[in-house]
Amino acid sequence: MTGGVTSTIASNRVLSKEKLWKELVNSDGEFVFALSAMGTGWDRKKSGLALGHAYSILSSREEVDEDGNKVRLVQIRLDFSFPNPV
């Protein structure tokens, strides 16, 4: 779709979560990020994601909650459409 080079990273094989987070937060639009949850159905207990679907990562940032703790937020979008009925 973009003609760009892609990389696939399995979340259980990320060597440095801090490095990945810094890339997400500091990309300045230089990279296109996406994610998917492998499988079928819904992963309601773990993440609430629809399995087997691709998500666009729209933004990521750190905020501070009311207790002063840093919270990492990632805004995602599921581009899901149903085919038109015949």
Q: What does this protein look like?
A:
10% of the residues lie in helices and 31% in strands. With 86 residues, it is mainly beta. It has one domain (13-78). Strand 4 and strand 5 form a beta hairpin. The two termini are 28 Å apart.
User: What would you report as the Rg, rounded to the nearest angstrom?
Assistant: 15 Å
Decide which structural class fits the backbone: mainly beta
What percentage of amino acids are in beta strands?
A: 25-35%
Order of helices and strands: HEEEEE
Unreliable spans are none
Task: Strand order, main sheet: write it out.
Answer: 1-4-5
Range of helix content: 10-25%
User: Helical element count?
Assistant: 1
Number of strands: 5
Taken from the alpha-carbon principal axes, the silhouette is globular
Mean pLDDT: 76
Instruction: Estimate nothing, just give the exact number of structural domains.
Output: 1
Describe the main β-sheet briefly: 3 strands, antiparallel
What is the terminal-to-terminal distance? 28 Å
Provide tags for this entry.
mainly beta, two-stranded antiparallel ribbon, 1 helix
Secondary structure layout:
Elements: H1 17-25, E1 34-36, E2 42-43, E3 49-50, E4 54-64, E5 70-78
Antiparallel strand pairs: 1-4, 2-3, 4-5
Give a short overview.
The protein has one helix spanning 17-25; strands at residues 34-36, 42-43, 49-50, 54-64, 70-78.
